[in-house]
Design goal:
Elements: H1 13-54, E1 57-58, E2 64-65, H2 77-113, H3 119-154, H4 156-161, H5 165-176, H6 180-190, H7 204-207, H8 211-228, H9 230-239, H10 244-259, H11 263-292
Antiparallel strand pairs: 1-2
Helix pairs in contact: 1-2, 2-3, 2-10, 3-8, 5-9, 5-11, 6-8, 9-10, 10-11
Length: 293
């Protein structure tokens, strides 16, 4: 008697749930990233518009200074610095998250593939370490900006002499885009944890993943990113730290060179545009200074 054995071709519910977990996790991750980006971008826009409504302080050199570098009425310098750093951090979340989210997802995938149930929490610690570096940069930037603003207000000759500085900064930032230093840090930003996707026992940062290691990985990635974005960040600070148009241009530039197929080529194209803009700004400053003289 022949026994006919039939097999159920339908996948087991456990296997089916495992296959569905990755797409669901991806949707949740990028959904949260979009929500965080919209919230930070919206808050940044509100602060920028409020600053714009308050007006800019006219400078003796003929330009103007954003109120972000000065104290509000009755505000102490520590409170002014804390307010700036908080605003700076929110702004950096909005500007860097579009290029950071794919990198964070790559880390989340690797941790999850190795069976780490805490992948979400460790990925969050990576992002905290990353933005901690940007917050430290804001702490370092504010005293310099406030000091330069004070000098501009007190010494008209100094204000007139530095009128060409923004154009020079943009020009140098464009030239930096062509350097090997820029290419090295850009490669580190683009390739973060990419080689670890096929890791073995040598991938210590992945296999020994814990909060301390995740934090350290985020800080290391943040340092590479700050170095890679030195040029665009300098442009942002020199041209208009609270200008939404400048923020949008820097965000597009940073994201393009991170996600494009040939990041170095894109970075050099951005550098060429910055060099052209810097030369125009320098020429305008010379003409304005000659007319004022």
């Amino acid at each position: 008697m022949n026994v006919v054995r039939t097999t159920d071709a339908r996948p087991h519910p456990v296997h089916r749930s495992r296959r569905m977990s990755a797409p669901v996790s991806r949707r949740v991750f990028f959904g949260l990233s979009v929500v965080l980006f919209v919230a930070s971008a919206g808050l940044t826009a509100i602060v920028c518009l409020s600053m714009s409504a308050a007006g800019e302080m006219p400078m003796p050199g003929g330009g103007s200074m954003s109120m972000v570098w000065s104290r509000m009425c009755g505000q102490t310098w520590p409170r002014a610095a804390a307010s700036f750093v908080g605003m700076w951090l929110v702004m950096m979340v909005a500007m860097m998250l579009p290029s950071l989210a794919p990198v964070l997802w790559r880390y989340h995938e690797i941790i999850g593939r190795l069976g780490n149930a805490r992948a979400g929490r460790l990925t969050a610690w990576v992002s905290v370490g990353y933005f901690f570096v940007w917050a430290l940069l804001g702490v370092a930037v504010f005293p310099s900006g406030a000091a330069l603003a004070a000098l501009d207000m007190q010494w008209p000759a100094f204000a007139r002499s530095v009128a060409a500085v923004p154009g020079a900064v943009v020009l140098l930032a464009g030239m930096l885009q062509f350097s090997a230093w820029k290419a090295q840090h850009l490669a580190c930003c683009r390739d973060a944890w990419r080689r670890a996707s096929h890791c073995t026992s040598g991938c210590v940062d992945v296999l020994q993943a814990n909060v301390r290691v995740a934090w350290r990985s985020g800080v290391r990635q943040g340092l590479h990113c700050v170095c890679c974005c030195a040029g665009p960040t300098a442009v942002l600070l020199a041209v208009g730290v609270m200008d939404l148009r400048v923020m949008a241009a820097v965000t597009i530039a940073v994201t393009a060179e991170r996600v494009a197929a040939n990041g170095v080529h894109v970075a050099r194209m951005i550098g060429a545009l910055a060099i052209g803009a810097g030369l125009l700004m320098l020429a305008r400053a010379v003409v304005t200074g000659a007319a004022a003289g």
